[in-house]
Amino acid sequence: MRRFPNLSAILAGLTLAFGVAGSLAVAQDKAPATTKPAGTATKAAAPVAMLSITNLDRLLSDTTYMLRACNVPEVGGLVSVMANQYTQGLDRTRPLGLSVTMDGETPVPVGFLPVSDRAAFFDSLAAIGVEPDDLGDGLFEIAAGGNAIFVKDANGWLYISQTEEALDKVPVDPSAALGELPKKYDLAVKVNLQALPADMVEMMTDQIRGGFERQMAEQGDRTEEEVKKARELGEASMAQLEQTIRDTEQLIFGWAIDAQGQKTFMDGAAQFVAGSKLAAQADAAKNLKTAFSAFKLPQPAVSFRSTSTVADADKPVIKNSLNTSLQQVEERIGNQVNNTQASEALVKLVKSLGKLLEQTIDEGTIDGALSASVSGDALKVLVGGRVADGKALAQAVQDAVKDLSGISEVPKFEFAYETYGGMTLHRTSIPIQTNDRSVQKVFGSNVKLTIGTGDKAFALSLDAAGDASLKAAIDGMKKAPSAVATPLDGVVEVGQIVEYAQSVAPNSMLDIVLQAIKDYAGKDKVLVNANVIPRGVVYRLSIDEGVLRAVGAAAKAGGQNNGGF
């Protein structure tokens, strides 16, 4: 019997990939030692986690395409040669994977490989020094760095685990538990939180709560009122976390390569327990409406829109996170702004904006959009969103300008210079004082900022041409005041951005990137979106082949030049 020290490491690594490995490891360390009579079968249980790998034919084809798209086709050829050499005897039309079940508080991983010719597969292993010992009845043992790995041949599958007992009872078709994952993704992980033992879930929440209590005990010189507020907000966060663990049925993380669609994408999905509060919230997202579907510039290089409702139980947690961020901003102002008048005015403005954001959160709807354009070498930016009180926003800005009066660097504002489409418009021009030609080319000699405030909305534009782009966006909002929306939708036109960057600050590396991306007009995007599914939501990041080509070309050129930009 020859030793193959890497096999156990591979099996352990696959187990860790599930994302619950940290919790499982803690549970295993704290679980009391148990002994199992020889020959006792592992109790059948639903898997806590599954690793899904699509069939080898598709995986190798997709990998070859991906490496070619990334401008390293030579690596794809090497991968194919090695894969063909060491997968002889495996069935290349069926998926493979790994399942983790729980025996008490102990995780039990079992890998499975589809096999068409066991002898041929073992012969390929022998070429790298792996010769399994035949224990009889289809069971084999492999020495792995002082430990043993067991392999069972049954039903056209090779089952792999760290103990013989784990292989006493194996399913006829282990791939059935993978469902549609091998068809949707090249690689996917599914975590079933409801299959975790109740004791383990309780231990996890106890550890989290213990960390919270230790944090509360280290409040330093905070006042009694501040400590009380921190505890209230912390308790709300704990309750939200515990409910998330309790209500989540499964998490799925998947990566797919779509050669036909010339892209690759990654999904992260959560599905909640039927009848749970989180399931109801997810289903309610099917009815989301946005007022900002048309709030964008023509041919934008970047556009994002986000829409959501905020449950009452989540409001304290979101506001707590908001206040923490705002406190950090206030501290930075205090540390970096030397003028006392300016520092006090800016902190006052941050507090006013924080109060307004809290009111918006309390109203329960978050809705907004961002758009940026670089057409014609001119940078334009639009930002708009829902706000609880647009008049209060305008007043906060006016108060800040008044508090900053007398400071020469503060630009002059023209408040309420026009009413347009139900919004009151305010504007200023900020001089750009720099010798940096790149900055001058992006912003010109002045940055023209326009702010629009309505009853329940605000809009902001950065446009050297003035307020025309903001007015056009307001017109778009008036034409589509309410549209059905997904929680998130965003696009980045990488080709436009690279071309603009090259026009602003020419660079030889950007020339290489542009050369690689020029033939992929329309296929040079990065997209992000979120879509509602029954009792849950799926977030997707998609990258077009043109972007992969550009990144690959830049990486290869950087490696050849021993440097980057």
Structure description:
The chain is an alpha+beta fold. It contains 17 helices and 22 strands. It has helices spanning 6-16, 21-30, 56-69, 73-86, 118-126, 181-184, 198-216, 224-247, 277-284, 315-336, 340-363, 390-403, 437-443, 468-479, 494-504, 508-517, 545-560, and strands at 49-53, 96-103, 106-114, 133-136, 139-144, 147-154, 157-161, 187-192, 248-258, 263-272, 289-290, 302-309, 365-373, 380-386, 413-420, 423-431, 446-453, 457-463, 483-484, 488-493, 525-533, 536-544. It has a 20-stranded antiparallel beta sheet, with helices on both faces. Strands 11-19 form a two-stranded antiparallel ribbon. The model is unreliable at 1-43 (pLDDT under 50).
Structural class: alpha+beta
Uncertain spans, ≥5 residues at pLDDT below 50? 1-43
Count of extended strands:
22
User: How far apart are the first and last residues' alpha carbons, in Å?
Assistant: 52 Å
Shape: globular
Radius of gyration: 29 Å
User: Overall mean pLDDT score?
Assistant: 85
Number of continuous helical runs = 17
How large is the share of residues in beta strands? 25-35%
Q: Please describe the biggest sheet, giving its number of strands, its sense, and whether it closes into a barrel.
A: 20 strands, antiparallel
In helices, the fraction of residues equals 40-55%
